[in-house]
Specification:
The structure is a homotetramer.
Chain A: H1 4-20, E1 30-37, E2 40-45, E3 59-62, H2 83-93, E4 97-101, H3 104-112, E5 117-119, E6 137-139, E7 141-142, H4 148-158, E8 165-168, E9 172-177, H5 180-200
Parallel strand pairs in A: 7-8
Antiparallel strand pairs in A: 1-2, 1-4, 2-3, 4-9, 5-6, 8-9
């Protein structure tokens, strides 16, 4: 996916897909793909728009700080405010795509296990890039904040190459991968795993 | 959105969208947009019709009391019985659109916190027009009733310009904004916030 | 709706709608409309077919006992096994349409309140044909069984003209009305009311 | 359904249907149909692809061990890793189709009742091929594992011809039938039954 038009079309389609799952309610969430690694350039979904209704042009190119670069397809479109965290995640992890949504179970899980959510011995962990047996996965949780550099530092402090996800308390989840498809598979598995874990640990 | 035909089309589309979320079951709920501020004229969805199946003509123009004015596109269509409350909300708040749905989580929240639902330190509050940190939002709850003037008075008594929502106990929720899109974003965020809060406070 | 073809088309469309809500899983449930009152003739959905995939021809005409009459549009189609209860309900209540689905909340409600489910002071009761205030609605529950005459007798014993619904324990719900649309509105409201009541009474 | 093209088309359509229910998140799950009984040949969905997006060519022919045979329509497509268990189930039960999905309620049920999930006196059991009254159905649960021969042995040890389902702990569910349609009806009923049972036994 090298051209901006292609990236925009892929981001619009993928956003509509997550919006259909109810994970991007009220214009929340954002998706990005890496256009270039050096200097880092990401195409990120524009801010404030319904994620089910994006067009290929509703995308903004940002640099490693999340700042919009000159020459945008839609100069009137602002990048997602969280673009800086997308860029940090891409830079540190080497990911080709970063997905951020506000699904409910990740946010509840972060609430119940603020020191990190532990998962192990679950088949769906394979879709998350880990093993189904004897592999303790801890999904890190960081406090919410509006300064993407602070969030980025918290992310980096707890970053493990084998754990492609981050929970932001009272906010949402970030999942990344080589491309939007791998990020999707990982996010779908993680959301399932968190929903299962929340239910399993509920008093019956 | 100045013409009635445009308003009707927008209301029909928006209603279908909420109906798709299951928030307008059994013909419940109603949406309105302000056509004129002085004298106040609202276009409100007609009563008794499935909200997924409205056409642009299924709209009634009402005055500030919620009474249908002469010269309707569909004289056989009655305005929503709750049009009077839509008008009061629009008049007091200056909103351009008012949305009323029967989503389950708002009604459960009103049941659990009949003195008002408190929300704070949640990212999704930004979509509700408030801050994500250190901003206590209290969504007012009023008792249900069939007299729109009584409901309107209760609404007005608890009205705060920074809190664009009202919970009616055992009934549903009203959310408003400058237009249907802003009202949608706010309602989607509020519904998410209430679902999260109900789950978070459940004994585990 | 007088012709069988019209009835079949309406039943197919309505079934697909309920199937879309997940209320007719595994071919469960059935819908009927009255073609003639005397002698009683109902068009009922055929048995064993996915309710999302019915055609207008997948309908069987039955008499007041639920037995298929001669001259069917599809002689290979068997009537729903529950057609006899549809007929009894139509005969006793005077309804023009009877809807039977296996939504989860009605069955759970019957489990929790086997002597009848009490509802009152809820706005959605208006969509069920009752009042929103000071009107105690009791939805009757009967034990499950395979003999439609036994079920029909149990239905008739507890029948009240102002309560157009019946819960069959460990099975599903029947709701009726003047036509499929009224039955739909009532069923949607009842299902919402039962979901609310189950949640409201859960220990928190 | 004798040709591979027909099988592929049916598998693709059926997979999309389950994916729409959210039961195949993150490429999880797989479906198969028997092409020949002796020697056993199954057409099984290819591995690693989104189950909502399969084409008729995304299918692999496997033998009784689950190994891909020569001459595939898509040599680049690998069979589902679980094909060996599909083949064992088909061989032992005589089923014409085997469906494996990762719906949440079956996995939760296996968690709560690891010695087998008991169901009885429920109308939906009829859709599962059992009786609605006085018929104790026990859905077996086996521990998860990556060796399909071990899983197959565990399946075979607890196999009963009148119970066309298997729960794999921390993983998912297998349901089978004469064809994909019967497997679908049985799976939909089982998933409903497990959801009901989990809810019914929750402390209130």
């Amino acid at each position: 996916m090298t051209t901006l038009a292609e990236a925009g079309a892929a981001l619009a389609a993928e956003s509509a897909r997550y919006a259909g799952l109810g994970w991007m309610r009220g214009t929340s969430g954002n998706l990005s793909v890496v256009l270039d690694a050096d200097p880092l350039r990401l195409a990120v979904t524009a801010s404030g728009l319904d994620k089910a209704e994006l067009t290929a042009a509703d995308v903004v190119v940002v640099d490693r700080t999340g700042t919009a670069v000159p020459d945008q397809p839609r100069p009137d479109r602002a990048p997602s405010a969280e673009a800086g965290l997308h860029a940090r995640i891409a830079e540190v992890s080497g990911a080709g795509a970063v997905v951020h949504v506000h699904a409910l179970s990740p946010v509840l899980a972060a609430e119940y296990w603020p020191d990190g959510v532990e998962l192990r011995d679950l088949e769906m962990l394979k879709g998350f890039g880990r093993a189904a047996h004897d592999d303790l996965v801890t999904v890190p949780v960081v406090p919410n904040g509006q300064d993407m550099r602070v969030l980025g530092d918290a992310f980096e402090a707890g970053y493990r190459a084998d754990t492609p996800a981050l929970l932001v308390a009272r906010h949402g989840v970030y999942v990344w991968g080589a491309d939007l498809t791998q990020a999707r598979h990982r996010l779908e598995c993680l959301e399932w795993l968190l929903r299962f874990t929340i239910e399993r640990t509920r008093t019956r």
